[in-house]
TrEMBL record:
Gene3D superfamilies: Ribonuclease Inhibitor
Protein name as annotated: Chondroadherin-like
The keyword Phosphoprotein is annotated on this UniProt entry: no
Organism the protein comes from: Spodoptera litura
PANTHER family linked to this entry: ANTIGEN BSP, PUTATIVE-RELATED (PTHR24369), CHAOPTIN-RELATED (PTHR24369:SF210)
Signal peptide: 1-16
Residue intervals passing through the bilayer: 429-453
Example of a GO cellular component annotation carried by this entry: plasma membrane
Keyword list, A-Z: Leucine-rich repeat, Membrane, Repeat, Signal, Transmembrane, Transmembrane helix
InterPro entries xref list: Leu-rich_rpt, Leu-rich_rpt_typical-subtyp, LRR_5, LRR_dom_sf, LRR_TM_domain-containing
Keyword Repeat: yes
Amino acid sequence: MKVLMILCVLVSSSHALEADAENVPCDITIQDSSNLTLNCSRRNIDEIPEKWPETLNSVDKDGHVLITFFNNTISNVSQIPAVPGKKVAISFKSNEIVDIEDDAFSNIERLVYLDLSNNYISGEVLRSEIFRGKYQCTNCTQYGVYGSIALETLNLGHNDIHSLDRYLFQYTPNLTRLYLNNNPIEILDHVTLLALASAINLQVLDLAKTDINSIPLDAFKGLTKLQQIDLSDNRFVTVPESLILVGSSLKYLTFNNNPINQLNDDSFVGLTNLIELEVGENDYLEEVKSSTFSPLKNLRVLHLCHNRNLRYISHKAFLGLKDQWTLKEVYLDNNYLSELSTDLMPWNKLEILGMTGNNWLCNCELANIVTDQGAGAKFQTGEIPFCAAPMRLSGAYITNITLPYCPTLNTEPKNIRVFTLSNLKPKHILYSILGVALIACLGMLLGLLVNAVKSCYNKKIKTQPIRYINLNSDTSFA
Ligand SMILES: *[C@@H]1O[C@H](CO)[C@@H](O)[C@H](O)[C@H]1NC(C)=O
Ligand SMILES: *[C@@H]1O[C@H](CO)[C@@H](O)[C@H](O)[C@H]1NC(C)=O
Ligand SMILES: *[C@@H]1O[C@H](CO)[C@@H](O)[C@H](O)[C@H]1NC(C)=O
Ligand SMILES: *[C@@H]1O[C@H](CO)[C@@H](O)[C@H](O)[C@H]1NC(C)=O
Ligand SMILES: *[C@@H]1O[C@H](CO)[C@@H](O)[C@H](O)[C@H]1NC(C)=O
Ligand SMILES: *[C@@H]1O[C@H](CO)[C@@H](O)[C@H](O)[C@H]1NC(C)=O
Ligand SMILES: *[C@@H]1O[C@H](CO)[C@@H](O)[C@H](O)[C@H]1NC(C)=O
């Protein structure tokens, strides 16, 4: 064992020496022959090295290689030397990149992950040529074609992108995850949409904090694999209708911090396969209306938290879902709620319920939800909500309260009395008819009496005809 450890130390120190010798000031960590990390973080590097340390080649041809240039001062990404391995990940996060050369990644066909976030890259720099693979020709005096690269994850977050080149993803057919968050996109223009539409294997799209307020109706047409989208920190006043086009594939929707005022039956139309929904930090959200969640027939997790003006959730918000209830986790923490309806949801079917940070009015309905319907057993440890009102219960755990005067509501959904003909018994009908007849009689009598009095009055006193003058229209009389 000791010998092994010593060997390890020797091997790694020799690696470090080698790196020094080649004047590449990076650390190489070799997990095993199939996993290698070249750490070039925080080393004041300002350009891409012309070659890699020899040891990089010790990785298997099926191995994984991660190269990170995190937090250096590279401004121009020139062509990167070839990297062995089956999956190559490279990070240029937090540099000063303003330009990327044509064919920058063409030596690394197995580049599956590329992080270009936190730089100064503009849309003009992002041309399809930068992602080209190798030039392939059988007879090079005529013409050949450029190959593709394996890129699956591309992080372009925190840059200076307004628009994407329509051919940008021409050579990245396997692009699965695209992060465009924190860019001044403002409007998803025609070419940007063409670019997105060409990334037909996209599963994850991050458009958070891109200053957009709408998504054209056909924007996601063709993105039949899109599973996850983040639209947080934008200027949407409604949840964009265009999501309906990916309704059959979309599983995760994040919609935090947008200026929406309410959620209603239009908000999530067609999102039948959504599994997880997050709507938080929407400062203007006040109301969740009837049937809001009704289209979400497969929802398992709902985060509706930190909406500090959210004061009302309709008791019909989950209308139509109760028979095939799929929700397991519901988080309603840190809103401005004071009451919930007992029949809002089948509380006992939840696994986790979050209700902290609201203004709960501890009344009989809440007691019913928490105690009789078992919601109190779904709070996570340390996450028991408090009563805010009435005064005498303020600050008590809502699981602690006993309200002796509450009627015993049963746990079945309330039987709302509906007046139908079949409910009528013959006796009722008879009473009704008699009642109506009685009222009619009284009316007639009253009418006769009034007429008699009137005629009497008219005879006795000769009154002047009353002139009604409309002050506005009668100026002509003056
Ligand atoms: C490679 O090593 C890192 C830790 O350095 C680990 O997180 C990762 O899962 C490993 N990858 C493989 C494919 O073994
Ligand atoms: C990479 O190197 C930097 C600088 O020596 C160090 O701070 C950082 O923790 C290293 N990262 C990894 C993943 O080893
Ligand atoms: C990068 O390093 C500089 C110091 O060289 C530091 O001031 C800065 O905060 C770092 N940036 C990030 C994103 O870590
Ligand atoms: C980046 O490097 C290429 C090739 O060396 C050069 O043509 C280009 O002008 C450089 N870009 C910038 C912004 O320096
Ligand atoms: C390549 O193209 C040239 C010009 O068209 C032609 O003369 C030559 O025969 C071709 N060679 C092959 C191997 O096809
Ligand atoms: C894309 O993925 C498929 C399936 O994994 C693979 O066969 C193909 O080689 C990949 N394309 C590129 C350009 O790597
Ligand atoms: C809950 O009830 C227990 C026992 O009655 C009591 O000791 C505790 O102070 C109460 N806590 C709150 C926050 O109401």
